[in-house]
Design a protein that fits this description.
By secondary structure, the chain is an alpha/beta fold. The chain is 38% helix and 17% strand. The strands form 2 sheets. A 7-stranded parallel β-sheet has the order 3-2-1-4-5-6-7.
Length: 358
C-alpha cells in the first residue's frame, strides 16, 4: 500500500511529532510511506530528538500547505491507499481510499456544522491518544473514536539512584492557550517551600525543551531559571532521549502538574492529554507523584505504582513520605516499572496496524 502521513506541526518537535513519526515508521514494512513536509531538516530534528530511524520513509512536498490549491491536493491524494492526518478537528477534502484522523487534544467548544459532518462521514476512523481526549472529541465531533496510546520506548539503565525529584516537559507549548501549561513555575515554588521548611539532601531537576530560535522564549526561560537561584534546583535543556534516560535512571521521584488550578471541564486542553514522560520515568523505576487529572489518571495506579494528588498540600505530603520511607519508595518503584510495561514494546505499532489493515 501507499500511505501518506501529515503532521502540520512537524517543526514543533513535541509529543505529537514523536507519535506521528513513530506511526509512519511502524507502517514501513511492506508499504511505501510518505511524510508530507517541505523541510527535511525538521524531520531530522524530530528523528534526533526522539532517537527514531525514519530512513525508510520518504519526504514528499507538503500538499497540505496553504500554498497548494484544492485541485492539486485532490489529484495528488488519489495516489494514496491510506492517509493519516494529525487534525485539530478540521477535515481536509482528499481522494485517498482510506482516511484516518488523529486528534491529540480535547476540542472544547468545537461546533460541527453540516459541511463538517459531511466531511467527517468520509473519515474511516478518528483515533485519540487517551480516553481523556476521546471523551471530549467524541462529544464535540459526534464520532466514536478509538484510543491508541502513544508510543513509549523504555531504556532503563542500571545506575545508582540519587535524591532527585525530576520533571520533564516543554517550557512553552505551542497551540495551547496558556503560558505555563506544564506548571513548572508552580512546581519550583512548591519545592522551594519544601526546602525552606527543612527538606535537605534532595534536589529538583527540570529537563525542559526550549525553542532556541525564539528570543522571547529564551528570555522568559532565563528569568524563570533565575527564580530558582540559591536553591538545589537544576535545569537540563533540550536533552536527547538518551540523555533523558540518564536522568530517569538516577531520579527517585517524578513530578507532573499540568492542569493544576484550571477549569478542566471548560478547558480540558490545559490538562496533560496523556503523559509520555510519566511512563518513561516509571519505566526507570521513578515513582510518579502527579496531578489527578487528564491522562495521568490512566497511567498511575494511585497508591500502587505512584501517587495522584489534587492539592499542593497533597503533592508535598506524598513527596515527603517517599523521601522518608525508603521501603515504600522501593515497593512503588517496582510497581511503577511493571505498570510502564503496559504502554511499551510493540503495542503501539500493533494497534496502528490493526486500525489501518482492519
Amino acid at each position: 500500500m501507499r500511505i501518506g502521513v501529515y503532521d502540520p506541526y512537524l517543526d514543533d518537535i513535541g509529543g505529537g511529532e514523536k507519535y506521528m513519526m513513530t506511526l509512519a515508521k511502524s507502517l514501513v514494512q511492506g508499504n511505501e510511506v510518505d511524510i508530507f513536509w517541505d523541510n527535511i531538516g525538521d524531520l531530522e530534528k524530530v528523528a534526533k530528538r526522539f532517537d527514531l530511524d525514519v530512513s525508510n520513509v520518504r519526504l514528499m512536498p507538503n500538499i497540505f500547505s496553504p500554498n497548494v490549491g484544492f485541485i492539486k491536493r485532490f489529484i495528488e491524494t488519489k495516489k494514496y491507499d491510506v492517509l493519516i492526518i494529525l487534525s485539530d478537528g478540521s477535515v481536509p477534502i482528499v481522494s485517498s481510499k482510506k482516511l484516518f484522523l488523529h486528534v491529540q487534544q480535547p476540542l472544547p467548544g468545537l461546533k460541527v456544522g453540516l459541511k463538517s459532518k459531511m466531511k467527517l462521514s468520509r473519515v474511516d476512523k478518528v483515533f485519540c491518544n487517551s480516553y481523556f481526549t476521546k471523551r471530549f472529541v467524541d462529544k464535540n465531533l459526534g464520532v466514536d473514536s478509538i484510543v491508541i496510546y502513544p508510543p513509549v520506548t523504555l531504556h532503563p539503565k542500571k545506575e545508582e539512584k540519587e535524591n532527585i525529584i525530576l520533571h520533564v516537559g516543554r517550557f512553552r507549548v505551542r497551540n495551547v492557550g496558556i503560558s505555563d501549561y506544564k506548571k513548572q513555575d508552580v512546581m519550583v515554588k512548591e519545592f522551594k517551600k519544601m526546602v525552606d521548611n527543612g527538606l535537605r539532601k534532595w534536589k529538583f531537576i527540570i529537563a525542559a525543551s526550549v525553542d532556541e530560535n525564539n528570543d522571547n522564549e529564551i528570555k522568559i526561560f532565563e528569568e524563570f531559571v533565575n527564580k530558582a537561584k540559591d536553591y538545589p534546583i537544576e535545569f537540563e535543556v533540550n536533552k536527547t532521549n538518551k540523555e533523558l534516560w540518564d536522568l530517569y535512571s538516577r531520579a527517585k521521584i517524578y513530578w507532573h502538574a499540568s492542569g493544576f488550578g484550571e477549569d478542566l471541564e471548560k478547558h480540558p486542553e490545559f490538562a496533560e492529554h496523556f503523559g509520555i514522560s510519566t511512563v518513561e520515568a516509571m519505566g526507570a523505576g521513578v515513582v510518579p507523584v502527579v496531578i489527578n487529572s487528564g491522562g495521568q489518571k490512566e497511567i498511575v495506579e494511585d497508591e500502587v505504582s505512584g501517587f495522584l494528588w489534587n492539592t499542593l498540600e497533597e503533592l508535598k505530603e506524598r513527596t515527603l513520605l517517599l523521601t522518608k520511607e525508603d521501603k515504600i519508595l522501593k515497593t512503588m518503584s517496582s510497581a511503577a516499572k511493571k505498570r510502564a510495561q503496559d504502554f511499551a514494546g510493540d503495542r503501539f505499532g500493533d494497534d496502528v496496524k490493526r486500525m489501518v489493515y482492519g
